[in-house]
Amino acid sequence: MGEGKSLLSTSLQNKSVVESIIDRIVSAIIEGELGPGDRLPTEMELCRDLGVGRNSVREAIKKLEAYGVVYIKRAEGTFVSETYNRRMLDPMLYGMILQKDSWQDLIELRRVLDIGTLDVVISHQVTEEQLDTLKACVEQMERAMDVEKPSVTAIMEADSEFHMAIARFTGNEQLVNITDYITRITIPSRRKTIKRVLEQGGTEHFIDLHRQLIQVIEHQQYEQISKAVMDHYVYWKEEEQEM
């Protein structure tokens, strides 16, 4: 941060004091006022610049530390984190949990994410080994379904690994973590989906939808990405209509 430059170039917004302090510090990082490894102003400086009390500053710093955005060195100060930490995405997960009744919003978010992920994966040209990984997940799903009493949990685990594998093929750690969070937040709905598939005898169609995604990836069928994703969401659409 430049010498003599105040962290607070704008006034606090109409939020809670702690939230406003967090927003201002995060904005300073995003806008380049603070960079990785930079030391934040002292508590006293933050109190002065932001016009807030010391307790509010301390609480804001504790939250930012919990999220992995900053770290504290005793006797040296508070510094902007220099490496990515998956805890940084925790606030997004909490927000999804609190807004989980917004079912349509969640479906749209997952759809956009899946389409974008497939686009990136195809552009990277997956290897035979990666394709074998996806095929192994599908085979695992088939085995889990082809028993007298199929385990919903076992099927879910294979399905989750299939989609997480696709995310990992992008080589984008943030995308992998976002996919993981959305996978976790949709566990209840996916459990209902698999139960419905088993009850309606739709296991073959369920497996075919996954094979369709593999084909899109293997043959780099960009024009089929959206259709393949939307076909995959047929069960979510049914659940939405029942809500």
UniProtKB/TrEMBL annotation:
This is HTH gntR-type domain-containing protein. Keywords: DNA-binding, Transcription, Transcription regulation. Residues 15-83 form the HTH gntR-type domain. The keyword Transcription regulation applies. It comes from the Bacteria. It holds the Pfam family FCD. GO terms for molecular function: DNA binding; DNA-binding transcription factor activity. Gene3D superfamilies: GntR ligand-binding domain-like, Winged helix-like DNA-binding domain superfamily/Winged helix DNA-binding domain. CDD domains: WHTH_GntR.
